[in-house]
């Protein structure tokens, strides 16, 4: 089943909760398009500001350590120390641009870190940012060039505390750790977006399945109404034909036939209005079977069939005259009882089911189907829940309401109220 809309795109994801400040701006831009600013870039969250400020402090701290080590280098004259510190200060300031130009900043830091010892912290931050925001091929080229220049750097400016071999080993381990950590953060973000996309797709598929179930329920209701309408029109035609061929019939018979014609025409008009209201002239596939549909009067027969199938069913029918219930209301009540008994037979075999019907004109008709927990183990029977969706659609179209869910005793209950007046 397709989960895209008519425009060919996934529906817009729901707004993010109030904890969006704890997410990176790159994630919020994917999850919430409204978080993108006028420039087309995601707005910085509170978390972004904290992380950026921390990266800036790290770059400054490492730069200060490098500046403190400059006087200990015998091959570094004072003018070069000044240039080194100026380059380090500019590199630390450039850290604030790491989100906008991660690749450009990382590439620029390669020669700057080679010339300036105090720019090492900014180079570390730039390489980590590149690993987080860009694919691995860019990270591999940038870190590879930086590692290739490392032996020359420590040969020209040896570390006073570490040997040449240890300096190279430390630089290689630090570069590998930064790249690995950055790629891990990138993978985690991509996983979060993938899970969000899966959840959105699953929610969309569920909504489409429910919509399809509602459409199928409307079509089934329309077919039932079509059958009832065909039955009424057939009855009307029979009585009208009798009057046509027997114009000399007794007055009583003429009055009775005229009353049947009037009543049948009125009920046919009501059924036709219901069909139009359900499908809005979209019921072209209805079959003209001409068979009447069950109403509330057929409820006892339904209960008897269930008992013959081995179910324990108790019917509490408090409606004194089921014939006075409108056909559409009685038909909906019958279908609710039928679906409730079917579900009880599948999911609670052996449990005693109680069907209760009550109501008077003006107050409406209520019907409920209850069953306690099954007495033994129940085999797993898969269910799509579309039957309950269809019942909800039926009750809504009839102007009533439908509820279902577990009961207080651990069983299950479906109940509905339908207008009767």
TrEMBL record:
Gene3D superfamilies: 1.20.5.1930, Histidine kinase-like ATPase, C-terminal domain. Its EC number is 2.7.13.3. It catalyses: ATP + protein L-histidine = ADP + protein N-phospho-L-histidine. SUPFAM superfamilies: ATPase domain of HSP90 chaperone/DNA topoisomerase II/histidine kinase. The keyword ATP-binding applies. Residues 218-282 form the Signal transduction histidine kinase subgroup 3 dimerisation and phosphoacceptor domain. The chain crosses the membrane at residues 49-67, 105-131, 138-156, 162-184. InterPro entries: HATPase_C_sf, Sensor_HK_TwoCompSys, Sig_transdc_His_kin_sub3_dim/P. GO terms for molecular function: kinase activity. The keyword Transcription does not apply. It comes from the Bacteria. Keywords: ATP-binding, Kinase, Membrane, Nucleotide-binding, Phosphoprotein, Transferase, Transmembrane, Transmembrane helix, Two-component regulatory system. This is histidine kinase.
């Amino acid at each position: 089943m397709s989960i895209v809309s008519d425009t060919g795109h996934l529906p817009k994801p729901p707004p993010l909760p109030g904890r969006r400040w704890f997410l990176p701006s790159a994630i919020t831009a994917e999850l919430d398009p409204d978080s993108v600013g006028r420039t087309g870039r995601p707005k910085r969250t509170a978390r972004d500001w904290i992380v950026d400020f921390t990266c800036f402090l790290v770059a400054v701290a490492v730069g200060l350590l490098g500046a403190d080590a400059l006087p200990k280098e015998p091959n570094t004259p004072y003018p070069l120390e000044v240039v080194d510190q100026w380059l380090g200060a500019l590199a630390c300031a450039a850290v604030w641009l790491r989100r906008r130009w991660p690749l450009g900043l990382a590439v620029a830091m390669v020669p700057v870190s080679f010339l300036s010892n105090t720019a090492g912290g900014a180079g570390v931050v730039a390489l980590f940012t590149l690993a987080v925001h860009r694919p691995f091929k860019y990270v591999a080229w940038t870190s590879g060039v930086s590692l290739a220049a490392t032996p020359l750097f420590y040969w020209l400016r040896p570390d006073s505390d570490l040997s040449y071999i240890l300096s190279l080993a430390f630089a290689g381990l630090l570069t590998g750790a930064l790249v690995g950590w950055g790629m891990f953060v990138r993978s985690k973000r991509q996983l979060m977006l993938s899970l969000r996309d899966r959840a959105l797709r699953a929610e969309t598929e569920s909504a489409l399945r429910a919509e399809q179930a509602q459409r199928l329920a409307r079509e089934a209701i329309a077919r039932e109404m079509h059958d009832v309408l065909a039955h009424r029109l057939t009855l009307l035609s029979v009585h009208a034909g009798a009057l046509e061929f027997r114009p000399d019939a007794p007055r009583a018979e003429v009055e009775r036939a005229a009353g049947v014609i009037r009543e049948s025409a009125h009920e046919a008009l009501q059924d036709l209005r219901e069909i139009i209201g359900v499908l809005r002239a979209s019921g072209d596939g209805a079959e003209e079977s001409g068979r009447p549909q069950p109403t509330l009067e057929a409820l006892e027969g339904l209960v008897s069939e269930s008992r013959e199938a081995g179910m324990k069913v108790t019917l509490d029918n408090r409606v004194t005259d089921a014939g006075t219930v409108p056909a559409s209301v009685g038909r909906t009540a019958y279908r609710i009882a039928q679906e409730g008994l079917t579900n009880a037979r599948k999911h609670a075999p052996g449990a005693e089911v109680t069907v209760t019907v009550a109501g008077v004109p003006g107050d409406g008709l209520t019907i409920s189907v209850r069953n306690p927990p099954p007495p033994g183990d129940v085999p797993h029977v898969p269910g799509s829940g579309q039957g309950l969706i269809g019942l909800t659609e039926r009750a809504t179209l009839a102007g009533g309401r439908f509820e279902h869910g577990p009961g207080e005793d651990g069983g299950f209950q479906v109940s509905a109220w339908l207008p009767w007046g």
